[in-house]
Protein backbone atom coordinates (compact mmCIF):
# COMPACT_ATOMS: atom_id res chain seq x y z
CA UNK A 1 0.00 0.00 0.00
CA UNK A 2 1.33 3.42 -0.97
CA UNK A 3 0.18 6.67 0.62
CA UNK A 4 0.79 9.44 -1.85
CA UNK A 5 -0.07 13.09 -2.56
CA UNK A 6 0.29 14.09 1.09
CA UNK A 7 2.25 16.49 3.25
CA UNK A 8 4.25 14.27 5.63
CA UNK A 9 4.71 15.55 9.20
CA UNK A 10 8.08 14.74 10.76
CA UNK A 11 9.36 16.00 14.16
CA UNK A 12 11.64 18.51 12.45
CA UNK A 13 9.25 19.78 9.77
CA UNK A 14 6.71 19.08 7.06
CA UNK A 15 7.76 17.73 3.67
CA UNK A 16 6.00 17.55 0.32
CA UNK A 17 6.73 15.33 -2.67
CA UNK A 18 7.15 12.09 -0.68
CA UNK A 19 5.13 8.92 -0.48
CA UNK A 20 4.98 6.36 2.27
CA UNK A 21 5.04 2.62 1.65
CA UNK A 22 3.30 0.18 4.02
CA UNK A 23 3.56 -3.60 3.99
CA UNK A 24 2.13 -6.04 6.57
CA UNK A 25 1.42 -3.30 9.09
CA UNK A 26 4.85 -1.67 8.95
CA UNK A 27 6.30 1.37 7.22
CA UNK A 28 8.73 -0.13 4.72
CA UNK A 29 9.67 2.93 2.71
CA UNK A 30 9.59 6.72 2.51
CA UNK A 31 10.60 7.86 -0.94
CA UNK A 32 10.21 10.47 -3.65
CA UNK A 33 6.82 10.27 -5.32
CA UNK A 34 6.84 7.77 -8.21
CA UNK A 35 4.75 7.83 -11.39
CA UNK A 36 4.18 4.17 -12.23
CA UNK A 37 3.53 1.50 -9.64
CA UNK A 38 1.74 -1.81 -9.19
CA UNK A 39 0.88 -1.47 -5.48
CA UNK A 40 -2.43 -0.27 -4.03
CA UNK A 41 -2.35 3.51 -3.95
CA UNK A 42 -4.07 5.71 -1.36
CA UNK A 43 -4.34 9.26 -2.72
CA UNK A 44 -4.47 11.65 0.26
CA UNK A 45 -5.37 14.64 -1.92
CA UNK A 46 -2.82 17.03 -0.49
CA UNK A 47 -3.80 16.56 3.17
CA UNK A 48 -1.39 16.04 6.07
CA UNK A 49 -0.08 12.57 6.92
CA UNK A 50 1.09 12.20 10.54
CA UNK A 51 1.92 9.34 12.88
CA UNK A 52 -1.00 8.11 14.94
CA UNK A 53 -1.39 9.99 18.20
CA UNK A 54 -0.41 8.41 21.53
CA UNK A 55 -2.36 9.37 24.66
CA UNK A 56 -0.70 8.52 27.99
CA UNK A 57 -3.69 9.49 30.13
CA UNK A 58 -7.24 8.33 29.22
CA UNK A 59 -9.88 7.47 31.80
CA UNK A 60 -12.88 7.07 29.53
CA UNK A 61 -15.38 8.33 26.95
CA UNK A 62 -19.04 8.08 25.97
CA UNK A 63 -20.12 7.29 29.52
CA UNK A 64 -17.66 4.38 29.80
CA UNK A 65 -14.77 4.25 32.27
CA UNK A 66 -11.56 2.25 32.56
CA UNK A 67 -12.59 1.28 36.10
CA UNK A 68 -15.42 -0.84 34.67
CA UNK A 69 -12.69 -3.39 33.88
CA UNK A 70 -14.58 -4.71 30.86
CA UNK A 71 -13.47 -5.19 27.28
CA UNK A 72 -16.73 -3.60 26.11
CA UNK A 73 -15.85 -0.41 27.98
CA UNK A 74 -12.27 -0.52 26.69
CA UNK A 75 -13.50 -0.88 23.10
CA UNK A 76 -15.87 2.09 23.42
CA UNK A 77 -13.08 4.24 24.86
CA UNK A 78 -10.61 3.24 22.14
CA UNK A 79 -13.11 3.75 19.32
CA UNK A 80 -14.03 7.23 20.51
CA UNK A 81 -10.44 8.37 20.88
CA UNK A 82 -9.53 6.88 17.49
CA UNK A 83 -11.93 9.44 16.01
CA UNK A 84 -9.55 12.08 17.37
CA UNK A 85 -6.51 10.46 15.76
CA UNK A 86 -5.33 8.37 18.72
CA UNK A 87 -3.98 4.98 17.71
CA UNK A 88 -2.31 4.03 21.02
CA UNK A 89 -3.37 4.88 24.55
CA UNK A 90 -2.88 4.07 28.20
CA UNK A 91 -6.13 3.22 29.94
CA UNK A 92 -5.93 5.16 33.18
CA UNK A 93 -7.26 4.14 36.58
CA UNK A 94 -8.74 6.33 39.28
CA UNK A 95 -7.86 6.35 42.98
CA UNK A 96 -9.54 3.22 44.31
CA UNK A 97 -8.87 0.21 46.53
CA UNK A 98 -5.92 -1.80 45.21
CA UNK A 99 -8.24 -4.75 44.52
CA UNK A 100 -10.29 -2.66 42.11
CA UNK A 101 -7.15 -1.49 40.34
CA UNK A 102 -5.95 -5.09 40.07
CA UNK A 103 -9.29 -6.00 38.47
CA UNK A 104 -8.58 -3.41 35.77
CA UNK A 105 -5.03 -4.70 35.29
CA UNK A 106 -6.28 -8.24 34.83
CA UNK A 107 -8.93 -7.10 32.33
CA UNK A 108 -6.41 -5.06 30.35
CA UNK A 109 -3.92 -7.94 30.32
CA UNK A 110 -6.64 -10.20 28.89
CA UNK A 111 -7.69 -7.57 26.33
CA UNK A 112 -4.12 -7.16 25.09
CA UNK A 113 -3.75 -10.93 24.72
CA UNK A 114 -6.98 -11.12 22.71
CA UNK A 115 -6.04 -8.22 20.44
CA UNK A 116 -4.67 -10.47 17.70
CA UNK A 117 -8.10 -12.09 17.32
CA UNK A 118 -10.07 -8.86 16.84
CA UNK A 119 -12.18 -8.76 13.71
CA UNK A 120 -11.58 -5.07 12.99
CA UNK A 121 -8.79 -2.60 13.71
CA UNK A 122 -9.07 -0.14 16.58
CA UNK A 123 -6.77 1.92 18.75
CA UNK A 124 -4.12 -0.12 20.50
CA UNK A 125 -4.20 -0.44 24.28
CA UNK A 126 -0.53 0.12 25.02
CA UNK A 127 -1.00 -0.59 28.73
CA UNK A 128 -2.24 1.09 31.89
CA UNK A 129 -1.48 4.37 33.61
CA UNK A 130 -2.12 3.89 37.34
CA UNK A 131 -3.15 7.32 38.67
CA UNK A 132 -3.62 6.92 42.41
CA UNK A 133 -3.99 5.72 45.10
CA UNK A 134 -0.48 6.96 46.04
CA UNK A 135 -1.34 10.67 45.86
CA UNK A 136 -1.71 13.66 48.15
CA UNK A 137 -5.04 14.39 49.81
CA UNK A 138 -4.57 18.19 49.61
CA UNK A 139 -4.05 17.80 45.84
CA UNK A 140 -6.55 15.03 45.11
CA UNK A 141 -8.66 17.06 42.66
CA UNK A 142 -11.59 14.93 41.48
CA UNK A 143 -10.10 11.74 42.93
CA UNK A 144 -11.81 10.14 45.94
CA UNK A 145 -9.81 11.07 49.03
CA UNK A 146 -11.09 8.16 51.13
CA UNK A 147 -9.18 5.68 48.95
CA UNK A 148 -5.85 7.49 49.03
CA UNK A 149 -3.07 5.53 50.75
CA UNK A 150 0.68 5.61 51.23
CA UNK A 151 2.71 3.24 49.04
CA UNK A 152 3.40 0.38 51.44
CA UNK A 153 5.70 -2.47 50.35
CA UNK A 154 2.71 -4.81 50.11
CA UNK A 155 0.59 -2.54 47.92
CA UNK A 156 3.56 -1.71 45.70
CA UNK A 157 4.29 -5.41 45.20
CA UNK A 158 0.67 -6.06 44.21
CA UNK A 159 1.13 -3.58 41.37
CA UNK A 160 4.62 -4.77 40.45
CA UNK A 161 3.07 -8.17 39.72
CA UNK A 162 1.55 -6.39 36.70
CA UNK A 163 4.70 -4.69 35.46
CA UNK A 164 3.99 -6.15 32.02
CA UNK A 165 0.76 -4.11 31.84
CA UNK A 166 1.55 -0.93 33.82
CA UNK A 167 3.46 1.53 31.65
CA UNK A 168 3.11 4.62 33.86
CA UNK A 169 2.25 5.35 37.48
CA UNK A 170 1.51 8.69 39.13
CA UNK A 171 2.92 9.11 42.65
CA UNK A 172 3.14 12.07 45.03
CA UNK A 173 6.87 12.06 45.93
CA UNK A 174 6.38 13.45 49.44
CA UNK A 175 4.37 10.47 50.76
CA UNK A 176 5.96 8.07 53.28
CA UNK A 177 7.41 5.17 51.30
CA UNK A 178 7.17 7.01 47.97
CA UNK A 179 10.90 7.13 47.22
CA UNK A 180 11.37 3.38 47.62
CA UNK A 181 8.25 2.81 45.50
CA UNK A 182 9.54 5.11 42.77
CA UNK A 183 12.85 3.28 42.67
CA UNK A 184 11.12 -0.12 42.49
CA UNK A 185 8.73 0.91 39.71
CA UNK A 186 11.52 2.58 37.74
CA UNK A 187 13.69 -0.53 38.07
CA UNK A 188 10.90 -2.58 36.46
CA UNK A 189 10.69 -0.28 33.44
CA UNK A 190 7.56 1.60 34.55
CA UNK A 191 7.51 5.33 33.81
CA UNK A 192 7.10 7.15 37.14
CA UNK A 193 5.29 10.49 37.02
CA UNK A 194 5.02 12.92 39.90
CA UNK A 195 1.52 14.25 40.32
CA UNK A 196 -1.43 15.06 42.56
CA UNK A 197 1.36 16.23 44.79
CA UNK A 198 2.10 18.86 47.45
CA UNK A 199 5.84 18.18 47.25
CA UNK A 200 8.56 20.65 48.19
CA UNK A 201 11.57 21.15 45.96
CA UNK A 202 13.70 18.65 47.89
CA UNK A 203 10.97 16.00 47.65
CA UNK A 204 10.91 16.42 43.88
CA UNK A 205 14.71 16.26 43.64
CA UNK A 206 14.80 13.09 45.75
CA UNK A 207 12.15 11.51 43.51
CA UNK A 208 14.14 12.45 40.41
CA UNK A 209 17.24 10.87 41.94
CA UNK A 210 15.25 7.63 42.42
CA UNK A 211 13.79 7.50 38.90
CA UNK A 212 10.90 9.96 38.43
CA UNK A 213 11.17 11.32 34.89
CA UNK A 214 7.82 12.99 34.23
CA UNK A 215 5.03 14.94 35.88
CA UNK A 216 1.29 14.45 35.52
CA UNK A 217 -1.00 17.12 33.98
CA UNK A 218 1.38 20.03 34.57
CA UNK A 219 -0.11 22.97 36.51
CA UNK A 220 -3.08 20.87 37.68
CA UNK A 221 -3.13 19.37 41.21
CA UNK A 222 0.53 20.24 41.61
CA UNK A 223 2.50 22.17 44.24
CA UNK A 224 4.02 25.48 43.27
CA UNK A 225 6.40 27.95 44.91
CA UNK A 226 5.34 29.00 48.41
CA UNK A 227 6.82 30.29 51.62
CA UNK A 228 8.34 28.02 54.23
CA UNK A 229 8.99 30.24 57.18
CA UNK A 230 10.56 33.39 55.78
CA UNK A 231 11.88 31.71 52.63
CA UNK A 232 10.16 31.00 49.30
CA UNK A 233 10.69 27.43 48.11
CA UNK A 234 9.75 25.87 44.80
CA UNK A 235 7.33 22.99 44.42
CA UNK A 236 6.94 20.15 41.95
CA UNK A 237 5.94 22.58 39.19
CA UNK A 238 9.09 24.67 39.32
CA UNK A 239 11.28 21.60 39.65
CA UNK A 240 9.70 20.13 36.51
CA UNK A 241 10.10 23.38 34.59
CA UNK A 242 13.77 23.69 35.52
CA UNK A 243 14.90 20.07 35.12
CA UNK A 244 15.58 19.25 31.43
CA UNK A 245 15.18 15.49 31.95
CA UNK A 246 11.60 15.82 33.22
CA UNK A 247 8.83 15.35 30.64
CA UNK A 248 5.63 17.31 31.29
CA UNK A 249 2.12 16.10 30.56
CA UNK A 250 -0.15 18.92 29.36
CA UNK A 251 -3.94 18.93 29.05
CA UNK A 252 -4.14 21.49 26.25
CA UNK A 253 -7.94 21.52 26.02
CA UNK A 254 -8.28 25.27 26.53
CA UNK A 255 -9.83 24.77 29.98
CA UNK A 256 -7.30 23.14 32.30
CA UNK A 257 -4.43 25.51 31.52
CA UNK A 258 -4.56 29.07 30.16
CA UNK A 259 -2.75 30.02 26.93
CA UNK A 260 -0.21 32.09 28.90
CA UNK A 261 0.70 29.13 31.11
CA UNK A 262 0.94 26.84 28.08
CA UNK A 263 3.28 29.35 26.42
CA UNK A 264 5.38 29.46 29.58
CA UNK A 265 5.63 25.66 29.60
CA UNK A 266 6.59 25.64 25.92
CA UNK A 267 9.30 28.25 26.50
CA UNK A 268 10.66 26.31 29.49
CA UNK A 269 10.56 22.78 28.11
CA UNK A 270 10.74 23.23 24.35
CA UNK A 271 8.94 20.97 21.87
CA UNK A 272 10.69 17.80 23.12
CA UNK A 273 9.69 18.23 26.77
CA UNK A 274 5.89 18.17 26.51
CA UNK A 275 3.51 15.23 26.12
CA UNK A 276 -0.04 16.19 25.23
CA UNK A 277 -2.61 14.15 27.16
CA UNK A 278 -6.39 14.37 27.15
CA UNK A 279 -7.03 13.10 30.70
CA UNK A 280 -10.44 12.37 29.17
CA UNK A 281 -13.05 10.97 31.52
CA UNK A 282 -16.36 9.25 30.81
CA UNK A 283 -17.92 12.59 29.90
CA UNK A 284 -15.83 12.86 26.73
CA UNK A 285 -18.11 12.67 23.72
CA UNK A 286 -21.29 13.32 25.72
CA UNK A 287 -23.51 16.36 25.20
CA UNK A 288 -23.44 19.37 27.49
CA UNK A 289 -25.51 18.72 30.60
CA UNK A 290 -24.79 14.98 30.60
CA UNK A 291 -24.04 13.32 33.93
CA UNK A 292 -21.46 10.61 34.52
CA UNK A 293 -19.49 8.97 37.32
CA UNK A 294 -15.77 9.08 38.06
CA UNK A 295 -15.44 6.02 40.28
CA UNK A 296 -18.36 7.09 42.45
CA UNK A 297 -17.96 10.86 42.14
CA UNK A 298 -20.92 12.50 40.40
CA UNK A 299 -19.76 14.62 37.46
CA UNK A 300 -21.20 16.57 34.57
CA UNK A 301 -20.24 17.94 31.18
CA UNK A 302 -20.54 21.72 30.88
CA UNK A 303 -19.15 24.00 28.16
CA UNK A 304 -17.09 21.12 26.72
CA UNK A 305 -15.28 20.33 29.96
CA UNK A 306 -15.91 17.79 32.73
CA UNK A 307 -16.62 18.96 36.28
CA UNK A 308 -17.58 17.52 39.64
CA UNK A 309 -21.33 17.86 39.92
CA UNK A 310 -20.98 20.61 42.56
CA UNK A 311 -18.66 22.47 40.15
CA UNK A 312 -15.92 22.60 42.79
CA UNK A 313 -13.23 21.08 40.56
CA UNK A 314 -12.43 19.92 37.07
CA UNK A 315 -13.00 16.19 36.53
CA UNK A 316 -10.80 15.45 33.55
CA UNK A 317 -11.41 16.65 30.02
CA UNK A 318 -14.03 16.05 27.34
CA UNK A 319 -11.45 16.24 24.56
CA UNK A 320 -9.78 14.06 21.97
CA UNK A 321 -6.13 14.43 21.02
CA UNK A 322 -6.82 16.37 17.81
CA UNK A 323 -8.40 19.16 19.86
CA UNK A 324 -5.20 19.45 21.90
CA UNK A 325 -2.99 19.62 18.81
CA UNK A 326 -5.26 22.28 17.36
CA UNK A 327 -5.13 24.31 20.59
CA UNK A 328 -1.33 24.25 20.62
CA UNK A 329 -1.23 25.52 17.04
CA UNK A 330 -3.99 28.15 17.23
CA UNK A 331 -3.68 29.45 20.82
CA UNK A 332 -0.03 28.82 21.71
CA UNK A 333 1.38 29.45 18.21
CA UNK A 334 3.37 26.22 18.21
CA UNK A 335 4.37 25.02 14.71
CA UNK A 336 2.23 22.11 13.57
CA UNK A 337 5.11 19.65 13.34
CA UNK A 338 6.10 20.40 16.96
CA UNK A 339 2.52 20.05 18.22
CA UNK A 340 2.28 16.69 16.45
CA UNK A 341 5.56 15.57 18.03
CA UNK A 342 4.04 16.35 21.45
CA UNK A 343 1.24 13.91 20.60
CA UNK A 344 3.40 11.22 19.00
CA UNK A 345 7.19 11.03 19.34
CA UNK A 346 7.40 12.46 22.86
CA UNK A 347 4.84 10.15 24.51
CA UNK A 348 6.26 7.17 22.62
CA UNK A 349 9.69 7.95 24.04
CA UNK A 350 8.27 8.52 27.52
CA UNK A 351 6.97 4.94 27.81
CA UNK A 352 9.46 3.27 25.43
CA UNK A 353 7.10 2.48 22.54
CA UNK A 354 9.99 1.94 20.15
CA UNK A 355 7.94 1.16 17.03
CA UNK A 356 5.42 3.99 17.34
CA UNK A 357 5.25 7.77 17.25
CA UNK A 358 7.08 8.64 14.02
CA UNK A 359 7.04 8.25 10.26
CA UNK A 360 10.14 6.13 9.76
CA UNK A 361 11.05 2.84 8.12
CA UNK A 362 10.41 -0.06 10.51
CA UNK A 363 7.77 1.75 12.57
CA UNK A 364 4.21 0.49 12.91
CA UNK A 365 1.91 1.89 10.25
CA UNK A 366 -0.23 3.85 12.71
CA UNK A 367 -1.27 6.89 10.71
CA UNK A 368 -3.67 9.83 10.88
CA UNK A 369 -4.76 11.95 7.93
CA UNK A 370 -5.47 15.60 8.80
CA UNK A 371 -7.13 18.32 6.79
CA UNK A 372 -5.56 21.80 6.51
CA UNK A 373 -8.08 22.85 9.20
CA UNK A 374 -6.68 20.06 11.45
CA UNK A 375 -9.70 17.81 11.34
CA UNK A 376 -9.21 14.04 11.42
CA UNK A 377 -10.16 12.58 8.05
CA UNK A 378 -8.90 8.98 8.22
CA UNK A 379 -7.00 6.82 10.74
CA UNK A 380 -4.99 3.66 10.21
CA UNK A 381 -3.71 1.19 12.84
CA UNK A 382 -1.09 -1.31 11.73
CA UNK A 383 -1.88 -0.31 8.15
CA UNK A 384 -5.60 -1.09 8.40
CA UNK A 385 -8.16 1.69 8.28
CA UNK A 386 -10.26 2.29 11.40
CA UNK A 387 -13.92 3.00 10.81
CA UNK A 388 -14.36 6.24 12.73
CA UNK A 389 -17.35 6.70 14.99
CA UNK A 390 -19.24 9.97 14.95
CA UNK A 391 -18.76 12.24 17.93
CA UNK A 392 -22.01 12.35 19.85
| Separate helix tally | 10
Q: Beta-sheet strand percentage?
A: 25-35%
The CATH homologous superfamily is called Metal-dependent hydrolases
Helicity, in percent? 25-40%
CATH class, named Alpha Beta
Characterize the overall form.
Answer: globular
Oligomeric category? single chain
* Measured distance between first and last alpha carbons: 32 Å
Low-pLDDT residue spans: none
Topology:
Layout: E1 2-4, E2 7-10, E3 13-15, E4 18-23, E5 26-32, E6 41-43, E7 48-51, E8 53-58, E9 60-61, E10 64-65, H1 71-82, E11 86-92, H2 98-114, E12 124-131, H3 153-160, E13 166-171, H4 178-187, E14 191-194, H5 201-210, E15 214-215, E16 226-228, E17 231-233, H6 236-242, E18 247-250, H7 259-269, E19 274-276, E20 291-294, E21 297-302, E22 305-308, E23 314-317, H8 321-330, H9 336-342, H10 345-350, E24 367-370, E25 376-381, E26 384-385
Parallel strand pairs: 1-6, 2-7, 8-11, 11-12, 12-13, 13-14, 14-15, 15-18, 18-19
Antiparallel strand pairs: 1-4, 2-3, 4-5, 7-24, 9-10, 16-17, 20-21, 21-22, 22-23, 24-25, 25-26
Report on the architecture of this protein:
25% of the residues lie in helices and 28% in strands. The protein has a single domain, classed as TIM Barrel (Alpha-Beta Barrel). An 8-stranded parallel sheet has the order 8-11-12-13-14-15-18-19. The protein has a 6-stranded mixed sheet with strand order 3-2-7-24-25-26, covered by helices on one side. The protein is an alpha/beta fold. The protein has helices spanning 71-82, 98-114, 153-160, 178-187, 201-210, 236-242, 259-269, 321-330, 336-342, 345-350, and strands at 2-4, 7-10, 13-15, 18-23, 26-32, 41-43, 48-51, 53-58, 60-61, 64-65, 86-92, 124-131, 166-171, 191-194, 214-215, 226-228, 231-233, 247-250, 274-276, 291-294, 297-302, 305-308, 314-317, 367-370, 376-381, 384-385. The longest helix is centred in the N-terminal third of the chain and has 17 residues, at 98-114. The chain has 10 helices and 26 strands.
Amino acid sequence: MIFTNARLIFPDGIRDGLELVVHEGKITGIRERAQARAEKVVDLEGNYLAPGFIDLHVHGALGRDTMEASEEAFRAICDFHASGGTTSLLLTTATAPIKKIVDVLNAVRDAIRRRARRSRPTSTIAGVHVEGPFISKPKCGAQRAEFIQDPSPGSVQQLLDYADVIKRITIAPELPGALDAIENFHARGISVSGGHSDAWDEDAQAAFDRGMRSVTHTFNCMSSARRRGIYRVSGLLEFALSEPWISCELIADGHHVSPTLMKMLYRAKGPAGICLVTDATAGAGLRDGSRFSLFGNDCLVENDVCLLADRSALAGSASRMIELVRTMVTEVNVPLHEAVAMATQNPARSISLETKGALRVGADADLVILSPELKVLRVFADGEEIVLSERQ
